[in-house]
User: Fold these one by one.
Assistant:
Number 1:
Amino acid sequence: MIANYHNHTWRCNHASGEERAYVERAIAGGIRVMGFSDHTPYPFPEGTDIHTRMGMDQFEDYVNTVLTLKREYQGQIDIHLGLEVEYFPDYYPALQEFLKPYPVEYQILGQHYLDVGPVMPYIARPSPPEREGALLEQYVDLCIAGMETGDFLYLCHPDVFCFSGEQAVYEAQMRRLCAAMERLHVPAEINLLGIYQHRHYPNPAFWEIAGAYDLHVILGTDAHKPEHVWVPEAEAKAMELVQRYHLHLLHQLPLHHRKEANT
Ligand SMILES: [Zn+2]
Ligand SMILES: [Zn+2]
């Protein structure tokens, strides 16, 4: 792995370790391009539960920390300032407005929730059988709308949705998602966290479908602690998927894809 764009920091409340230790781990693994993409703060209404992301008031510190490391490690490793962002149509424009003054180099789309509110169902957990078809459709709708903004470097764990219903329903929705990635030229991430934590993703059923589309694939470790910045065993398993389903793997991505929101 020469580039890894998917790394978190302690600010999201479910990651640990010092940012510097993440960088050192990347260097030890021979990674040359590393992006921090912590769970974005979101300008939600007052009182919304935000326990899985940094608060708006932590963003300044996040930016400064990453930029300081970027300067310090210049010449050893290219460090980039990114964010993992969900597409919530009601709040996304305000988020982009908030981010405007900051030198964010990329966003990756990681849709873990479908809605904002006191009870936000986490889609990587099983949902009620009578609702999961509709929820899966809503998941795909949100991913597509997010990708259509043109703001995203890639789609994180496209197969994160935990679906146990009819295979035909799953396939129809995943085809819709893959067709959109192909049309919009948004690469799909093989998520290594799912591998090293033995989750239900990467889901071979998804990657078999993806293999039939002309889309690009990238590996992301989704590190929530320093040792997960570089996980060679998980990388090897991901490469088996790449080979089995004839996926078009990219090793590095250009970061100038993002719309010129700052001008
Ligand atoms: Zn996370
Ligand atoms: Zn992540």
Number 2:
Amino acid sequence: MIDPQPERRWTATYAAWADELPEWVSERVFAAAVDNPVAWTSHRVELARRYVVFDTANLQDSLDLSGARIIRDRVAEIDAPSRSTGHGIDLPSVRLASGPTLPAGRVIDARGIARSPALAEQTAYGVIVDRARWTGEDTLFMDWRPDNGAKPEEPPSFLYTIPVSADSVLLEETCLAGRPALDPAVLRERLEHRLRSRGIDLTGTEQVERVRFPVQGGRPHDRRFGAAGALTHPATGYSVATALRTADTVAAGDTIWPASARAVHALRAAGLRALLALPPHEIPAFFDAFFTLSPHSQRAYLSGRDDLPGTITAMTALFAALPWRIRRTLVGAVALPQPARR
Ligand SMILES: Cc1cc2nc3c(=O)[nH]c(=O)nc-3n(C[C@H](O)[C@H](O)[C@H](O)COP(=O)(O)OP(=O)(O)OC[C@H]3O[C@@H](n4cnc5c(N)ncnc54)[C@H](O)[C@@H]3O)c2cc1C
């Protein structure tokens, strides 16, 4: 395992749908679990799906690296096995920034995705406050209510709230996906505006969480993993649960990319293009329609990475639930080409 900072502690707050996680993930690594998170579009919806928030430090510590040789370095180049096999064993290899080249039976590229203006990103700005200060619901998966001061013609953002410990909650203003995504400074202003309108004046001493990462740009491939391997859901930004769930299969050398998963990946990419093409004021209406889908279809769309029939059913039902003016935009958007991959 090669990483420039193998001992770096993770600091982001990660959450996931409980049913996406493999059995070996222990409940001990959860900071909180909520059975019915809430979404707000034009009305309040309770989602019948358990949502868990990780205790990031415990999650990291639980991922056992014993048996792995850890090399503190940067990968400069990954070379495929040469085609002129000749004699001897022809292996892929990794050239390290410090000079040496290491041969390996298999090389898995998990280097993440470099930021690029060509790639849509998710951004968010959040603060952690005492639970006592927050009288709203402690788990809001998405709250699109228009009390954040944004004008209707501006790209929208939503409030995301989760408990992060027994006595604190994370309140985060999130731009789901944008090319470019909303600047964190704008999200900060909107968060402050929204919280003020709900009775909380921030003091400026709260712990801050900043989010910015590409939601596209990975490539489905058996030699790639994590964001680099297209495990990020392009329309939601989630990837952590998928990485945990698929890790054993990848380690065993089996594929996580059957034809069904590749087809779902293409449909999800079309879903992102649709989201990016929607006029800002229509985004809440899009999610209004999304949350009318059956729990089964919502789950298929959000998590069924190799469930092709489920994804098609969900997307068809979503399309049918949308007003005509939005459908027309979506039809145009999904025909657009995809951005270049790394
Ligand atoms: C604040 C925040 C909150 C988030 N919340 C959630 C959430 O709730 N749920 C969720 O599913 N996702 C969430 N995400 C997204 C999630 O963090 C990413 O999708 C995920 O980290 C991708 O993991 P990865 O390991 O593939 O890539 P990265 O996290 O980008 O890691 C890449 C690794 O590769 C190493 N590396 C890079 N280049 C080289 C090189 N040349 N040689 C060797 N090593 C290299 C880096 O040091 C790093 O360790 C959040 C992101 C942020 C920033």
